[in-house]
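Notes continue from the previous slide.

Worked example: a multi-chain complex. Inputs as given:
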Amino acid sequence: AQSVSQHNHHVILSEAASLELGCNYSYGGTVNLFWYVQYPGQHLQLLLKYFSGDPLVKGIKGFEAEFIKSKFSFNLRKPSVQWSDTAEYFCAVNDMASSASKIIFGSGTRLSIRP
Amino acid sequence: DAGVIQSPRHEVTEMGQEVTLRCKPISGHDYLFWYRQTMMRGLELLIYFNNNVPIDDSGMPEDRFSAKMPNASFSTLKIQPSEPRDSAVYFCASSLREKGFNEQFFGPGTRLTVL
């Protein structure tokens, strides 16, 4: 079955530490990829997206993600996290072949930043 | 621009009562999605519409759940009768498919508590 895997359920870091959150998907065809962020008590907001072109995508608030097709991965990175980055992060995939309209979300990774 | 609007923001009801959640998508968007978020199951797609027509309702958990989209600017998700296990945050999202790309914009959610 098609799926999106986020292996880290909860990550705890200190401020200024570097961040990498893993995301793997199981689709073989053309995909669009997303990272959404959900701050405590708020709705999901788009952090960054990959459609085509440069596999290294820059998003808001200093986040970036790299699409590695051979590894079916789209990991999220930030060189230096801040306390305000405390949130839940969702990786999502839009499989263009099976349903270009439907986005499949991963289970989310909760990020806690110690001040 | 107004984003996706959901009402009510909070709903507390007793088991057995009918609950109706409402959503106004972003003007001009042609897709509308209903999601449910719980700690146990994460973010689940319940149903989505394209041009007011339901396309995939395979995520609707039971016959107690129903959704309608009578026009391009309004959708409802109804639970009748409600049960305590329906307690969750329900998100509505909308999107406009352009050039095969489908970024979803989320509403603030309705937090439903069924006692």
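Summary box: The two ends of chain B are 36 Å apart (CA to CA). Residues 39 and 51 of chain B are 31 Å apart (CA to CA).
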